[in-house]
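pinned: reference chain
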Amino acid sequence: MASRRLLPSLMIGAAFALTSAVASAQNVPRNRTLIVAAQVEAPVFRNVGLANPFSINNEDYRVSIINMFEPLFYYNVTDNSVIPWLATGYAYNADFTSLTVTLRDGVTWSDGKPFGVNDVLFTLNMLIENGRGKKDLLNAAALAASVKAVAKVDDRTVRIDLSEPDPRFAFKYLINYFDIGLQWVPEHIWKDAGDPAAFRFFDVAKGWPVTTSPWTVSRFTDAQVFIDRRDDWWAAKAKLAPMPEVRRIITVPGGTRDRMVQLISSNQADIVNDIQVAEVVRQVVTQNPKITTWTGKDAPYGARDWWPTSLYFNHKSGKWADIRLRRAIGHYIDRKQIVDVAYSGATEPKVDPFPGFGALKPYIDAIAPVAAKHGVGVYDKAKGDALMGEAGYKKNANGIWEKDGQPLSVVIEAIPVLNAVGPIVAQQLKNAGVDASFRSTPESRAVLRDGRFDPTLFGHRGSIADPYATLEMYHSRNAFEVGRPTLFPARWSNADYDKIVDEIGRLAPDNPGIKHLVVAAMDIWMREAVEVPISEWYHRVPMNQTYWTGWPTKDNPYMQPSFWYTSGSFGYVLPRLKPVQ
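pinned: its C-alpha cells
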C-alpha cells in the first residue's frame, strides 16, 4: 500500500514523467489533449505497431488503439441497454437458428470508403475459416462452431445461420461490452492481407489501421501512442454523437500503481487504470479536488465490474484431483480479511462466480443456500485440517502439509492488478501449513492463458444480465489441455454439469425455467469445489477534471469509464468529454 507520505511530493516526484510526450504534442493545446496512463503489465509497450484486433498475443492494443474499432452495438452495463451503432437492429427467427442484422446507412471508413455488408461478411467468413483451420485468431474457433453460414440479404442486411439454436449469439459476438464482441475490418484492405494472423494492419503513411472512428494513429513507439482526430466522422454527420473535442489522445505505459498515482495526482494524466487499493484512491481524491471516480469521492471509489475474483485450481494439472484438498484450501481462505486489508472493506466477499449486477441478483439469491450447504465461503481452519488428514496429508517438522514425503507447495500466479490480493492469500495458506508463495510478472498473463500455473488468482469474463455466460465458462468444451490458450482458467469438466448448461443455452434469457437449472448446475459446481470465490471486483479508475469534464459516473452513467476493454466502449465516451476552458 502506498505510503501516506507519498502524495504530498507528487508534483516533484512525477515532474519528468510525460515531458517528452507533452513536448511532442505542443501543436495541440493541453486542454485538447487527453493523456491516458495504461497498465500494460510491462514497463513499455511490447507490441509496437500491431493493430490486428484478432491477434491472440497482442496485449497492448486493448489499452492503446482498441477504441478506434467501432462495434455494431455498444452495451451500457450500468442500465442494461443496447446502443445501436454501426447497425440499427437485429432479429432472430422463431427457433433461434438464424438472425438478421440491419446495418446503418452512411457509415464510412477513415479512408473514405463506405462500410457495409461486404465488410461484415468478409470479417465473419475470415474468422469462421480460421476457426475451422489454424484457429490462431481471437474468437475464431468459437465463432466457427456457432455459425453454419452467413449471407447477404440486401445492401443493408446480413443473415447469420447458426449451427444450433442460440438465443444468445448476438450478445456473444455482435453486442460489445467489456471484452466481449467482434471488431470489423475493411474488406478492401484485408482481402489482400495474406495470412490474417500475421497481418499487422499498421502503417502510418497509409493511415492504417483504417477504422470507422474519427481517429488515426500518428505515432506508435514502445513509450507512447499518439492518436489524432480526423475532421470527418460519419457518426457526427448522423447526429449520433458530437464531434470529439479531444484532438489528440496520448497513451503511455502507466507502470506501477505508485507511478499511476503520481501521474493522475500531478495532473499529468487525465485517466489511469486500475488503482485497486481503495485507501490509495481515497487519498488521491482527497488530496486533489480535481480528481473524481465513478462514485465521486465516496467508497467504493469505482464501478462494479464483471470480474469477481477467485483462486482457480488448474484441473488439468492433476495436482488438485482430490476434492478434499480443494475444499480444504477453500476453508483456509479468510475472505473478510482479504476485503478488509486489500480493499479497506470497500468490496464484498463472494461465494459464487457471478458479478453482483442487479439482473443477476435473483440467481445469486437462489444459489446462496447451495453455497451454505456445501460450506463455500466458510473460513474454518479446523475443517480444512480434517479434510487434509482425510486426503492423506500430515504436517512435517516445519509445520508444512506433506503426502508421501512431498510437501504441499504452491506458487499463486496473478497479473499485476491483483498484487494487493495475492500476498494475503499466500500468507493465509502459509498460516494453514501450505508452502505458498505469490508471483506476478509481465509474463503472468501468458502463463495463466497457457495453463502453466499451479493455482492462479483471476476474475470471470462472464455474465452481465443472464447467468449463462458464466456457467458456460465451465463447460467441458472450455477444458482445454495445458498449452492451448484460454482465459477460462479452471479447465474443469463434468458431464452432468454440461447437460444442464446445454439445456439453459437452448432457452431464451428471459425464460422463467432457467432459475432452477442454474441452482442445479451450481449445486454440482459447489459440491465439486471447482474454485475458491473471493470477492467482487470494482474498477477504481481516477478521472482528472483539470483539463476534461463529462466523465461517466454513477450520476451520469452513460457508459462505464473503463478504457482498456476490447469492446472499444471508451470510444463512446470520448465524444462526450468537454475541455476545461
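why pinned: The longest strand covers residues 147-154. The chain has 20 helices and 26 strands.
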